[in-house]
Design goal:
The protein has 372 residues and is an alpha/beta fold. The protein is built from 14 helices and eight strands. Helix 8 links the parallel strand 2 and strand 3. The two termini are 24 Å apart.
């Protein structure tokens, strides 16, 4: 995950909205207070005796504040539907079959083959996972054409399904956010989607690359921020990776991990800020968090695309990856917990922290129940 907690522009935006709301409510209370016992006779008397200019200015001021409030309030974002790409049956590849493919390349030593088999058995990868057709070819294909074919199948398939599920037309989409970490050809994936589905000319399109596993969450956050400033808009978020490009035909252990962990997959999500979509949406997007650990050298170096000693390109996964991911997750949960937990759980956490700090270190910090 990839956050920015302290000086987050989103937090500043929410603070300004709250301040505007309070100002509006205070002004409204002052204006309406005299009218609590107001009658038609009183209104006639005011029009007769008061300055018409004063009444006009007050009325327009109230209308302006009401308009400003409704235009700038935080818009609710709804998840209308989503779709995950479903590979064809001929792409299903068991662990035994993938090991035969690896052995057939002639690129791996016996030690590398044994290492990959061991990692697959421990990682929980099943025998119903799918790989791109390029990996099943003899010899294995790793060119740009093969990589583009894989990602086109994934993202186009997911988009077609989510549009069909939602009953939407491609022309309805006003925002497009796409992410693919490693494989980013020219034209971009966002441009390919615009061309394939003939999106309208004023669509706001963004293409995220090189952002790793957190890119999907970041893409949703980008779409959410855009939906705050573009009313009555639909946003399409597409997330995919590329196994053809990511596959590594060498013997560096840090790079071999990607061969054993990743398979074909992708998803498309349709978001909306139309108030009328509230009843047909699946979820409402309430909170998004981003924790950026890039300033930490261990975090920065945990996933790298590089060449091995023989010049073969691959993705190196550091041993620190799990520890780094754990720290980012811890920071996110610490920020998210006060926003989603009930007061009863928060009170127990605070009580245990106070007791541990001022009384005895033996007190165990209370672990809140997020299922409540």
């Amino acid at each position: 995950m990839n956050p920015e907690n302290e000086h987050d522009p989103q937090n500043n935006f929410k603070f300004k909205l709250k301040a505007l709301n309070l100002l509006f409510l205070a002004f409204l209370a002052i204006i309406l207070d005299p009218f609590c016992t107001f009658s038609i006779h009183d209104l006639v008397q005011i029009i007769r005796h008061e300055n018409l200019k004063t009444i006009t200015i007050s009325s327009f001021s109230l209308i302006f504040l009401v308009t400003l409030y409704f235009r700038n309030r935080c818009r609710k974002v709804y998840l209308l539907n989503f779709a995950c790409y479903k590979p064809k049956p001929d792409q299903i590849c068991s662990k035994e079959r993938i090991m035969k493919i690896f052995a057939g390349t002639g690129k791996f030593t016996e030690e590398s083959l044994a290492f990959q088999k061991k990692i697959m058995e421990k990682s929980g990868v099943g025998d119903k996972t799918c790989v791109p057709r390029a990996m099943m070819a003899v010899p294995v294909e790793k060119g740009i054409a093969a990589a583009k074919k894989e990602t086109e199948d994934v993202i186009f398939g997911a988009i077609e399904e989510v549009l069909e599920k939602s009953g939407m037309k491609s022309k309805d989409i006003g925002i497009l956010v796409v992410n693919s970490s490693v494989f980013n050809p020219v034209p971009s994936w966002s441009a390919m989607i615009v061309n394939r589905f003939k999106l309208r000319h004023d669509v706001l399109s963004y293409n995220l690359g090189g952002m790793g596993c957190s890119a999907g969450v970041i893409a949703i956050d980008v779409a959410k921020q855009l939906l705050q400033v573009h009313p009555r808009t639909y946003a399409l978020v597409v997330s995919a990776e590329n196994v053809t490009k990511d596959s590594y035909l060498g013997n560096n252990r840090a790079m071999l991990l990607s061969n054993t962990l990743f398979r074909v997959g992708g998803a498309a999500i349709l978001l909306s800020n139309h108030p009328s979509d509230h009843h047909r949406s699946k979820y409402e997007l309430v909170h998004t968090l981003r924790t950026h650990e890039g300033a930490n050298d261990a975090s920065y170096k945990c996933v790298h695309e590089e060449e091995d000693e023989q010049g073969t390109i691959g993705i190196a996964l550091s041993k620190n990856l799990m520890a780094v991911a754990g720290e980012a997750l811890k920071a996110n949960i610490s920020t998210l917990a006060p926003l989603v937990l009930p007061w009863s759980e928060l009170l127990l956490v605070v009580t245990s922290l106070v007791a541990r700090k001022f009384f005895t270190k033996k007190v165990i910090v209370f672990s809140p129940n997020f299922y409540i």
